[in-house]
Amino acid sequence: MKANEKRKVESGTKVIILSIILIVFAIALILTLQKGEIRSITYETVVLKEKNAEKEKEKRALYASLLLKDESASTYSLD
Amino acid sequence: MEDNSLSEYDDYVGGKKENKDGLLSPFTYLCFILILFLAGLLFLYSSSYDDALNAGLKHYTFLLRELIGVGGGLLCGVILSLLPKFIFRKLSFALCPLSSFFAIFFIFNKEALSESMKPFFGFLSLVSIIFLLSYILPRIQGEERKGIPMLFACFIISLVIIPSSLSYGMGYFLLAIIIIVFTLLRSEGRVGFTIFFAFCLIAAFILTLLLSPSAFSSFSSSSMRVNDSSFYSSSLYSSQVMIVRGGMFGKGIGNGEGKLGSIVDPKGELIFSTFAEEVGVMGIIVLLFCLFVVLIIGLRTSVRAKKREDLFSSYFSLGITLLLFFSSLLNILYALGLNPFEGVPLPFFTYSPLLEGEVVSLSILLYKNIYISRSNDER
Fold first, then answer.
1. How far, in Å, CA of B345 to CA of B333, rounded?
2. Rg of chain A's alpha carbons, rounded to an integer?
3. Which helix (H) or strand (E) holds A72?
4. Is A2 within 8 Å of B6 when comparing Cβ atoms?
5. What is the C-alpha to C-alpha distance for residues B19 and B311, in angstroms, rounded to an integer?
6. Which long-range contacts (CB under 8 A, 24 or more apart) does B227-231 make?
7. Residue A31 is nearest to which of B27, B58, B253, comparing CB atoms?
8. Which residues in chain A are contacts of B253 at CB distance < 8 A?
9. For the segment B295-353, what is each residue's pLDDT rounded down to a tens digit?
10. Which of A3, A25, A32 has the CB atom closest to B6's CB atom?
11. Do the Cβ atoms of A31 and B6 come within 8 Å?
């Protein structure tokens, strides 16, 4: 009986040690995953901003070219 | 009956039998190897999420791929460890030509392979040397003449490890020399023979350099990356700055800044710098301690296996332990700028799903050897 009890205690200690390692790892992983998630959100926002800014620039360039065309057309007609 | 079992168990718990194992039991090995694996996965994720985002992937993609590798490795390791001993030995001999084939494939397709595949093939060729030594050495003991085919095979495999550019091969070549020399010393203790063999390997290496001018030029230019100002100023210098920035306790897991663009491939062979930045000197000490414990347990298993004349297990345990320990050491020295030979990965940490699977399988096989050696000693 005593031997069995000691064995149980030993195996119980082993299980506790392994579960502590796993729990610590799980907590660390969750915290790091959160940091990764935040980074991805920041990244997406930055990328989206950059994309929007580029689109805006393209639009402005297009308008400018159209305006220039209009002006040149008008000057031509005036001449 | 109960009293008998009780006295036996008391003897086991408080007496001689427990002292045989002490703290270095298979369970200790299991704990330390588990810590190494979990820390490896954690820091792999931490150093790879920015890379994944830059590549247009989800931030956990590299972690998932590595986990798939771990799953495959677990499966392979469990299947191999369940095989009967004689089948495993024969299989190990069959693995040698297969591994050599992969090593040759590695040389000719080096440029075509992705960065994550290279360490796997490099490790595989070293594992082939371990299998070869474990299988052949017990059969040629006491008869040096029979060692000629073994010498020839090791010689060829060592040459095979040197890829065309040599910058990758030198680290593996060093590892091969360490494994072969230690295993030969362990086998018979013939120091003269081992020194002669080591000189043969070095002579073969110099001969290859002289016979291949292109290899020589690439060796002098690209393998000595510490002297290469452009590379040194970028990745290696940044990695050293990151290690210094980590300080005593580091910046915290996931808070490193060097991985966000300072180094070229933060999840590759320079992953140690991310680790050092985030956990500092204390983390490095813990990592080295874990590796040291695994080394001690592996060496003890090798000694025990030799005592009960299981030479295959003895050389196999020795080879795997040396491979894990010295590859880690070479990688750490490379990140610190003290080892000029690039390419050697940090096992458990470097991103390579196939390599991770390989390391998991080898660790399971080593665990089996440790467990068997312990249970045989108890009898």
1. 11
2. 34
3. helix A2-78
4. yes
5. 24
6. B227/B340
7. B253
8. 28, 31-32
9. 999 999 998 888 888 888 888 899 999 999 999 999 999 888 888 777 889 999 999 99
10. A3
11. no
Q: Considering only CA atoms, which of A42, A40, A32, A21 is closest in space to residue B253?
A: A32
The whole-angstrom distance between residue B109's C-alpha and the CA centroid of its chain comes to 22
**Whole-number Cα distances in Å, B246 to B62, B116, B209, B240, B285:** 24, 26, 40, 10, 13
Structure tokens at B209: 């350099």
List residues in chain A touching B: CB distance below 8 A: 1-3, 6-7, 14, 17-18, 21-22, 25, 28-29, 31-33, 35-37, 39-40, 43
pLDDT tens for chain A, residues 1 to 79: 677 777 777 788 889 999 999 999 999 999 999 988 888 888 888 877 877 888 888 888 888 887 777 666 655 555 5
- How high is the ipTM of this complex? 0.75
Residue with tokens 């017990």: B138
| Beta carbons of A28 and B253 less than 8 Å apart | yes
Q: Which residue has the tokens 């073994």?
A: B150
